[in-house]
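Note to self: keep these together.
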Amino acid sequence: MTLQRIYTGRGGRAPAKLKDLPSINPEALRAPEGYLAPPDLAAAVDVALTLGMPLLLTGEPGSGKSALADSVAHELGLGQALRFVVKSDTEARDLFYRFDTVGRFHAAQTPGADAHPGRYISFAALGKAILHAKPPSFVEELGVPARAVDHPGERTRSVVLIDEIDKAPRDVPNDILVEIETMRFDIPELSGGGRAVRIGLDDARNENQYRPIVIFTSNREKALPEPFLRRCAFYHLEFPPFKAAEGDPEAVTVTGIVGARLGGRYERDRSRDAERRKNLAIDFFRFLRADRRGLERRPTLAELLDWLDFLMPQAVAPDQWEELAALEKPGSEAERWLLTSIETLLLKKPTDQRRDDRRGAAVLLDEWRRERGSGGGR
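Structure:
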């Protein structure tokens, strides 16, 4: 079954073609049950948990850093991780809460409107996690809407993901040092008596047993301040090996990750052709990532999974995965769509998509086939 043509780019209307689109579940490749953490990363998580420190996780984009938080939350039975994605204009306060200043101002000018400042607060991941560690009665006394907190109804520990902290202005990591260490933050907007309301964990009420588990990720686009680094446990997530070294049965490999995420698809094929061709696709990906290939941008692990998701569609029988089969069938009709999938999912720089006045994907696929034919493939 070759790629379904839905959009032709010729102006003809054919809305009925939409019914041919496959059902897509983007979360299927990201379910926490399928996450594989290297043993050293699992040990780093335990160190951070034992000391009550945040874990700073670095690694190349698409390596699975963000998915760690969901995996930890899943294994510890803590529901879904609370997530905050850092942006270039993020302020320290934003990690805890936001205040709708404009909405509050308009309410104050409107007769009969509820201008209580608590009505104009929305809590972010860290703020919610600290409030979830406190009893529901505390939230009621705070005077904020229940929807702003999403309290589970009983005190609980949360996993918090602060994604891409390196995108924040440089002063943000330093500005949250005390708050992260003490799990307390102030809300000046609720200063009815002239003092800001302080929200934090209370040792006297054993609330530190519900201390949030905080995971920061960084793509290392810029250096983080030393005081911030000193207060974090740290782990750098290396790109996984393609095969485990001899005598290392616990190693997490690219092949193992693909199996954990997509194994249920190719294992349906009793002929084992699908699994063999899946291994060919992984080997081509390995070929692309080799330093000597000279790509301006090397494809990531997440992009490999997306590519295999396309080549091995869940709703199609393995013996009809023609684009996957085209890896070993030069000149086949499906090879055209295989090349398109390589360009759109693995080669995302114009300089990589054109080589010697030819399609970059075609040149690279030919080189890979020659390498395998000469015994250079692994």
